[in-house]
């Protein structure tokens, strides 16, 4: 889901053929990836805690 | 010149970094930061009220490239509420958390505060996304602070739901950017026209946000997450985090999508809100535990907020600021009242050792100030005069009848009836005819002593909800009519 949204953003950067790609969506994707990674890390940490509680 | 819009964001951020760096001194750092941040936010709010909407471009870079902050009446009102509530929660948290977990609480809490202020002040769609995501991460981490199995499970679900919501929102932003070539709210509003682009991005962005704002039937994650979190965190989640997502929905609606969306979308939001009112109130009425009751009541109150959307869509321009004012008043009152209720619930839970409603009587009688706070919060949740909810519901009912949408009236009446039911059930455990007498000098194990000072934040918040916002709400409408309709 996350990478899908990021790919759409990267794709929209390449609009005209002869113009340079729009840098703003790239900056957005970069920020978005950082956010998604930290959220995933937190989710994994919570999941691990859950696993420990089960034992 | 001091940038009053940047300060409410940078102060808590700095505080969070300091509290992480010096964990042994996190409490004094946290409290100082809380005072400074609330003061800065209040000054920003007063400035908006005095001189009108503010806007500032960080680093001198304007839109479309730079990061802009802006505050109009809507942001200022919510910003002031959020910071006052946060200040109260901070004072309360000083006492609530044992020394061991304080150093985990403060950095996360200040980060949450940063995200909250950033969200209320951000002027472009992408910064809204970043603050929304930061808010979700900090909130989920705070909620899982107790480390209990149920708490971790509920908050893992909350985190994943939040992630899904913000990714959906981001997809909408991407589509909008493709079509309009700008991320700035004001610029996008000027160039957006009705059409498939507007409708699809509307559906995606609002869908993602509604998931976070816990509109029925997307509320399933809220009650367990809010009920399992530590009391100060529950207060912040229910009073502020849900409001932040709702603020975003409202902001997008009034600035971007309101003019292009048909009345069909508004009616759908209203219908879901109505379902939320009835279902949330009913579940709160049936709840066995106090914090679960408060959490379901949040679902119901969010429902009320969405009832305003079809009315705003149907009303003509001069009536809109009045409705918007009532809507914001309802949101503010609920913020204060629900924070007060959750803080009281935390005190009762510590005293009684549990939060089963039927057996809370002795604890309620042992803490008269808390009982008063619970009662006042109840007044605000039901909507008895003179609370702010009463004024807001009055306008809601009057406007429903005036615009011929009478079918919202029974919903509001039923919700109010159920609300009085659950508040009465709560107070009856202490004062009703069936109340258990205090047998032989109170509960078996000695309760933790609860100082008078720690009962005050809850009491002050509920007093603000009932008295100040009910009787002194008039300036709010002035503030709203200064903001874009």
Q: Can you describe this structure?
A:
The complex is a heterodimer of chains A (55) and B (485). Chain A has 55 residues and is mainly alpha-helical. Chain A has one domain. Chain A has helices at residues 2-13, 23-54. In chain A, helix 1 packs antiparallel against helix 2 (23-54). The longest helix of chain A is centred in the last third of the chain and has 32 residues, at 23-54. Chain A is rod-shaped and about 60 Å long. With 485 residues, chain B is mainly alpha-helical. Chain B has a domain at 262-485. Chain B contains 19 helices and two strands. Chain B has a two-stranded antiparallel sheet. In chain B, helix 13 (320-352) runs antiparallel to helix 15 (368-382). Chain B is globular. The two termini of chain B are 30 Å apart. Residues 439-447 of chain B have low confidence and may be disordered. At the A-B interface, helix 1 and helix 2 of A face helix 5 and helix 6 of B.
In short:
The complex is a heterodimer of chains A (55) and B (485). Chain A has 55 residues and is mainly α.
């Amino acid at each position: 889901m996350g990478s899908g949204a990021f790919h759409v953003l990267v794709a929209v950067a390449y609009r005209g053929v002869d113009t340079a790609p729009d840098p703003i969506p790239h900056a957005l994707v970069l920020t978005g990836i950082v956010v998604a990674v930290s959220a995933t890390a937190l989710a994994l940490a919570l999941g691990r805690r859950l696993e420990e509680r089960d034992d | 010149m001091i940038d009053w819009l940047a300060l409410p964001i940078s102060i808590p951020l700095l505080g969070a970094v300091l509290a992480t760096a010096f964990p042994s001194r996190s409490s004094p750092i946290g409290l100082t930061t809380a005072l400074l941040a609330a003061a800065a936010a209040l000054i920003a709010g007063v400035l908006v009220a005095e001189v009108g909407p503010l806007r500032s471009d960080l680093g001198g870079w304007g839109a479309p490239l730079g990061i802009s902050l802006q505050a109009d009446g809507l942001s200022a009102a919510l910003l002031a509420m959020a910071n006052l509530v946060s200040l109260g929660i901070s004072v309360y948290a000083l006492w609530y958390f044992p020394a061991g977990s304080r150093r985990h609480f403060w950095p996360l809490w200040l980060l949450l505060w940063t995200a909250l202020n950033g969200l209320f002040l951000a002027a472009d769609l992408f910064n809204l996304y970043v603050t929304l995501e930061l808010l979700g991460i900090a909130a989920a981490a705070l909620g899982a602070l107790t480390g209990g199995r149920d708490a971790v499970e509920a908050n893992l679900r909350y985190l994943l739901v939040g992630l899904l919501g913000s990714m959906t929102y981001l997809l909408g932003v991407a589509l909008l950017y493709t079509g309009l070539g700008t991320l700035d709210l004001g610029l996008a509003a000027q160039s957006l026209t009705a059409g498939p682009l507007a409708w699809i991005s509307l559906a995606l962005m609002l869908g993602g946000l509604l998931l976070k704002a816990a509109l029925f039937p997307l509320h399933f994650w809220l009650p367990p997450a809010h009920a399992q979190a530590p009391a100060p965190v529950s207060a912040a989640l229910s009073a502020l985090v849900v409001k932040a997502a709702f603020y975003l929905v409202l902001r997008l609606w009034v600035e971007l999508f309101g003019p292009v969306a048909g009345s069909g979308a508004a009616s759908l939001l209203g219908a879901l809100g109505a379902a939320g009112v009835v279902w949330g109130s009913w579940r709160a009425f049936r709840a066995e535990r106090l914090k679960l009751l408060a959490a379901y009541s949040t679902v119901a109150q969010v429902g009320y907020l969405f009832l305003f959307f079809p009315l705003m869509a149907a009303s003509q321009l001069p009536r809109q600021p009045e409705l918007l004012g009532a809507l914001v008043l309802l949101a503010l009152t609920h913020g204060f009242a629900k924070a007060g209720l959750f803080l009281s619930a935390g005190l009762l839970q510590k005293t009684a050792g549990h939060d089963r409603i039927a057996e809370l009587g002795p604890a309620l009688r042992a803490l008269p100030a808390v009982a008063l706070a619970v009662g006042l919060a109840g007044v605000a949740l039901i909507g008895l005069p003179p609370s702010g909810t009463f004024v807001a519901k009055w306008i809601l009912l009057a406007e429903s009848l005036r615009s011929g949408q009478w079918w919202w009236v029974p919903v509001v009446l039923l919700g109010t009836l159920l609300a009085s039911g659950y508040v009465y059930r709560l107070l009856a455990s202490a004062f009703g005819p069936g109340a258990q007498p205090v047998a032989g000098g109170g509960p078996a194990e000695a309760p933790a002593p609860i100082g008078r000072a720690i009962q005050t934040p809850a009491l002050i918040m509920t007093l603000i909800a009932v008295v100040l916002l009910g009787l002194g709400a008039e300036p709010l409408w002035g503030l709203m009519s200064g903001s874009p309709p």
